């Protein structure tokens, strides 16, 4: 198969998925008596520069979340707990940075490192429970999510400061903030400085997975645990280590907003990103580039959907539904394209080989 | 080639014409045609990757052919699933048994076929009837986990007959059996034939094929080259038909055993989950340059012995030394890094990542050593190049290192694993059935590779159900029975019959 054809096939699956999702979403809107044309008009309008920056910011954040989930998925560990690890990590960073034990950017660095440590430890609990007690990580991480919510809520109320109607951690001193990057001159909305963490994490993930023994062991365990054991992989240690790694990345999710905009942990904390990350990882098939595209699509839909209600009177919930449909459609489309590719390869083999029977006759 | 196109007749159980099947990069079957008269035993032979299993899967409806037609009892058929084939009276026994260990014979047989005779008295009566009719000697209430390999196989055959099969396909049924069990199986097959059943079976053991088959179809590179009668050929001639070249003759060799101990096992004991011993008082010594063969009927502790030495299983007592180091507390990885090569008995569970390309499978088990790593990083290029080397040195039939392991034929997967485990100069090779499912030509090649490594000081623990292999390769043979080593034999003087009776405990217990 020539390279152009191969790339064409690789793009075919997602395109097909979006087409399927588009058809279903339209049908849904039509059946519920909504303005289908208006919906598409809004969704497909090229975003304003301000919105573009928002989309990029959200993409970076979702990407970190998707990576955290993907690390577990790659070895068949279903870490549903990214949300909880993200909360704990962000809270710890906010408290540490708010206390400002170190000056300036050293304070920032310390807070980020501790956010990763906190996220890792929180995820590590689930890893330990699994290897010592055989508790499924799905169950334990779901429970750890709600514990994280309650615990952080309680601690914020206890150690937090109340300004006006909202309670939150102490505001981080301005010298420890991380400034934004201005992309467009005509809008004050800036790219969070720490969104660049997503790129660093993505590259690290790729290198770890493909170029290290650890990454090989991770993938091998995901493909066949019994074969990994026979190959000398310490599966228990792998479970704990990858949960720690997954949690550490989850700890990073909140950093761009914390140091770029919120400056404390309080009511503006963005919920649900940990769960969205799971969907993004699935959409991107746990591949570093795929996850980035998945994050971009989800962010784009969410940003565009914000104004649906105002402009065409459609509830933005339709966006969440569309995101769900895309996920399903992706699964179908990948299978479809895989079969098609197999058929193509087979027929090209048949063309190449004149037929072994004639060759045998000579022998 | 006269038998390729006889006149259509309703006495033909199966008639396939022009069957073709392609996989990515491979033509598995091409223009396959042959006829099987009803009430005969038909053997299919051919090299690894020749396309035998694919053909059988097509006959049983597991895979759909790209072209060609199949007639069963004179009627044209087209199967989409195995149930279509079963409805036409075709049954298949796969090489890997598909039985639930914790269920009884009765439960295993009726599972999925409850509609036929229910699950109670009728079913039991039917099972007892089949069992006695063909001399299977199976007790419906016995738990499958307590059965030996030969009995399990009979359960598989019973399952197929219970579902009304008149045509039974057996994919390499004798690979796991010791000679006595093979004889018993053949008696069963003859009974079945006498009752009018048609049997199709695949085997790499040509002597057996000549003994039992009425007709033999030879497949080479995906296509039928001939159908012959056993009376007209010798096993040598058959092998030549298969490969298109001469059969290598087994070579006897000078002993290369040195007096330096490589592996020493003392007082090894392993208990199962219920605390019953599955291995007791195992003492073993293997010197550099020595092949120690373990003979035994499958399920007598060989698996546990191997897993204990590789470190996948924790013994309850005993010590192990490799060279001058005590390895008892070492993890599998450390043992492998120190030169233990491992050819597992179950290549799918323990030897391969079926969905991964071959070059990644080259790394498996060698993650921390060259050529898989270089300067702390995974060395993809080194792994690929070494995969190419294994493919050519061990004659693995595949398009290349990017093919997924699962796409290789059984025998070619085995050749690849052997090649991998012989890489990086192991000091000790734990080889469980190293040539299981491998054709005669490749078997001789693998033996040569092992002999050569032995000359250079490799110590080998060889476990095999193939007694000729054990006798031909080993310097010493130990017999294992119910988790104990019960006798030592000299391969120079022992006969397969002697070994066979020691393995089944005949003459000693009764
Ligand atoms: N699912 C698959 N995908 C791709 N290729 C396949 C698949 N199954 C079989 N093949 C290829 O088809 C060819 C024939 O395989 P098959 O398993 O029929 O061989 P075989 O004669 O049974 O060999 P063996 O004696 O080693 O079991 C091989 O080259 C194999 O690699
Ligand atoms: Mg086969």
TrEMBL record, chain A:
Membrane topology: Multi-pass membrane protein
Primary location recorded for the protein, binned into one broad class: membrane
InterPro entries documented for this protein: ABC_transp_permease (IPR001851)
Single GO term (MF): transmembrane transporter activity
Superkingdom, taxonomy of origin: Bacteria
UniProt-annotated location(s): Cell membrane
Any single Pfam family the record assigns to this protein: BPD_transp_2
Segments crossing the lipid bilayer: 7-32, 52-73, 85-102, 108-131, 138-157, 191-209, 239-259, 265-284, 291-312, 318-337
Record-level GO cellular component terms: plasma membrane
The UniProt record lists the keyword Thylakoid: no
Coiled-coil intervals: none
Name of the protein this chain belongs to: ABC transporter permease
Species annotation: Nocardioides guangzhouensis
Lineage of the organism: Bacteria, Bacillati, Actinomycetota, Actinomycetes, Propionibacteriales
TrEMBL record, chain B:
Alphabetized Pfam families for the sequence: ABC_tran
Entry GO CC: plasma membrane
Residues annotated as domain ABC transporter: 14-246, 263-507
InterPro entries: AAA+_ATPase, ABC_carbohydrate_import_ATPase, ABC_transporter-like_ATP-bd, ABC_transporter-like_CS, P-loop_NTPase
Membrane topology: Peripheral membrane protein
Single GO MF annotation: ATP binding
Localization of this protein: Cell membrane
Family matches, as CDD domains: ABC_Carb_Monos_I, ABC_Carb_Monos_II
PROSITE patterns, A to Z: ABC_TRANSPORTER_1, ABC_TRANSPORTER_2
Keyword Repeat: yes
SMART domains: AAA
Signal peptide residues on this chain, from the entry's feature table: none
Protein name: ABC transporter ATP-binding protein
TM annotation in the entry: none
PANTHER family xrefs: CARBOHYDRATE TRANSPORT ATP-BINDING PROTEIN MG119-RELATED, GALACTOFURANOSE TRANSPORTER ATP-BINDING PROTEIN YTFR
């Amino acid at each position: 198969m020539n390279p152009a054809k191969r790339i064409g096939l690789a793009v075919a699956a997602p395109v097909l998925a979006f087409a399927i999702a588009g058809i279903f979403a339209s049908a849904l809107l039509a059946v519920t008596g909504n303005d289908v044309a208006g919906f598409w008009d809004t969704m497909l309008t090229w975003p304003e520069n301000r919105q573009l920056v928002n989309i990029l910011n959200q993409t970076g954040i979702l990407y970190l979340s998707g990576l955290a989930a993907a690390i577990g998925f790659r070895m068949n560990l279903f870490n549903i707990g990214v949300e909880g690890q993200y909360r704990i990590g962000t809270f710890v960073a906010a408290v540490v940075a708010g206390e400002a034990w170190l000056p300036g950017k050293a304070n920032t660095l310390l807070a980020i490192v501790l956010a990763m440590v906190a996220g890792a430890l929180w995820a590590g609990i689930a890893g330990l429970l699994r290897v010592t007690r055989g508790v499924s990580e799905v169950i334990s991480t779901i429970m750890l999510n709600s514990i994280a919510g309650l615990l952080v809520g309680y601690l914020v109320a206890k150690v937090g400061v109340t300004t006006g109607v909202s309670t939150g951690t102490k505001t981080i001193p301005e010298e420890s903030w991380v400034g934004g990057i201005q992309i467009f001159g005509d809008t004050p909305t800036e790219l969070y400085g720490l969104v660049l963490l997503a790129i660093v994490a993505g590259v690290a993930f790729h290198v770890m997975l493909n170029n290290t023994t650890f990454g090989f062991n991770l993938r091998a365990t995901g493909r066949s645990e019994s074969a990994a054991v026979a190959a000398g992989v310490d599966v228990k240690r792998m479970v704990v280590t990858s949960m720690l790694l997954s949690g550490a990345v989850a700890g990073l999710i909140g950093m761009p907003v914390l140091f770029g905009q919120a400056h404390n942990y309080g009511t503006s904390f963005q919920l649900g990103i940990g769960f969205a990350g799971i969907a993004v990882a699935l959409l991107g098939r746990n591949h570093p580039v795929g996850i980035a595209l998945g994050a971009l699509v989800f962010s784009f839909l969410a940003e565009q959907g914000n104004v649906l209600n105002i402009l065409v009177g459609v509830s933005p919930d339709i966006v969440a539904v569309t995101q769900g449909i895309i996920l399903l459609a992706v699964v179908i489309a990948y299978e479809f394209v895989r079969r098609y590719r197999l058929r193509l390869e087979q027929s090209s083999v048949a063309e190449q080989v004149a037929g072994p029977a004639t060759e045998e006759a000579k022998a | 080639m006269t038998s390729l196109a006889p006149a259509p007749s309703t006495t033909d159980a199966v008639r396939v014409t022009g069957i073709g099947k392609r996989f990515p990069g491979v033509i598995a079957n091409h223009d396959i045609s042959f006829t099987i008269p009803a009430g005969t035993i038909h053997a299919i032979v051919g090299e690894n990757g020749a396309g035998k299993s694919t053909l059988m899967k097509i006959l049983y409806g597991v895979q759909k052919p790209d072209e060609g037609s199949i007639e069963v009892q004179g009627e044209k058929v087209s199967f989409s699933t195995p149930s279509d084939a079963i409805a036409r009276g075709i049954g298949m026994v796969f090489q890997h048994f598909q039985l639930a260990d914790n269920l009884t014979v009765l439960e295993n047989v009726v599972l999925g076929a409850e509609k036929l005779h229910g699950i109670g008295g009728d079913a039991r009566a039917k099972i007892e009837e089949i069992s006695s009719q063909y001399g299977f000697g199976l007790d419906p209430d016995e738990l499958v986990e307590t059965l030996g390999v030969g009995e399990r196989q009979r359960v598989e055959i019973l399952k197929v007959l219970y579902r009304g099969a008149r045509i039974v396909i057996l994919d390499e049924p004798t690979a796991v059996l010791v000679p006595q069990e093979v004889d018993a199986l053949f008696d069963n097959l003859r009974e079945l034939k006498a009752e009018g059943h048609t049997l199709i079976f695949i085997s790499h053991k040509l002597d057996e094929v000549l003994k039992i088959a009425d007709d033999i179809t030879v497949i080479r590179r995906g296509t039928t080259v001939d159908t012959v009668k056993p009376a007209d050929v010798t096993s040598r001639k058959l092998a030549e038909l298969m490969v298109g070249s001469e059969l290598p003759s087994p070579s006897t060799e000078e002993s290369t055993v040195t007096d330096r101990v490589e592996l020493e096992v003392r007082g090894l004991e392993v208990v199962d989950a219920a605390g019953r011993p599955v291995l007791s008082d195992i003492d073993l010594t293997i010197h550099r340059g020595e092949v120690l063969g373990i003979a035994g009927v499958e399920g007598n502790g060989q698996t546990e012995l191997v897993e204990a030495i590789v470190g996948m299983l924790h013994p309850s007592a005993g010590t192990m030394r490799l060279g001058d180091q005590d390895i008892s507390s070492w993890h599998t990885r450390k043992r492998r890094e120190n030169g233990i090569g491992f050819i597992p008995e179950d290549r799918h569970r323990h030897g391969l990542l079926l969905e991964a390309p071959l070059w990644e499978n080259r790394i498996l088990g060698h993650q921390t050593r060259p050529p898989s790593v270089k300067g702390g990083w995974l060395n993809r290029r080194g792994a690929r190049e070494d995969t190419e080397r294994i493919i050519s040195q061990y004659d693995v039939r595949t398009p290349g290192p990017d093919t997924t392991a699962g796409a290789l034929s059984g025998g070619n997967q085995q050749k690849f694993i052997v090649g991998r485990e012989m890489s990086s100069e192991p000091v000790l090779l734990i080889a469980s059935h190293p040539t299981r499912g491998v054709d005669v030509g490749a078997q001789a090649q693998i033996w040569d590779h092992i002999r050569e490594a032995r000359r250079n000081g490799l110590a080998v623990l060889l476990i095999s159900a193939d007694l000729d292999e054990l006798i031909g390769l080993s310097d010493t043979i130990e017999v294992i029975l119910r988790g104990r080593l019960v006798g030592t034999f000299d391969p120079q003087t022992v006969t397969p019959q002697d070994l066979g009776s020691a393995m089944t405990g005949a003459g000693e217990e009764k």
